[in-house]
Design goal:
Layout: H1 3-22, H2 26-80
Length: 81
């Protein structure tokens, strides 16, 4: 494909996109903005939920280690007496 053909193809696509954008009404724009906002909100919620789950998992593992050590200490003290 030559440079001229690439330029013509590119300008055709740009023209098609601009004609779609130009034909959109205010209601159409509201729908597009709503969809984009919903997708961004979903992505942000997923990101922060994963962070929260990771924090809670870490705290749970630390709690298990604490309980395990406490039980070991009790068993060791019981065996020394």
């Amino acid at each position: 494909m030559s440079a001229t053909e690439k330029a013509i193809t590119g300008s055709s696509y740009i023209g098609a996109v601009l004609s779609i954008i130009g034909g959109m009404t205010l209601t159409d724009w509201g729908i597009v903005v709503g969809i984009i906002t919903a997708l961004l909100t979903f992505g942000a919620n997923m990101y922060y939920q994963r962070q929260k789950n990771a924090r809670e998992q870490h705290l749970y593992e630390m709690e298990l280690q604490y309980v395990y050590r406490a039980r070991q200490d009790v068993h060791q003290e019981g065996g020394q007496q």
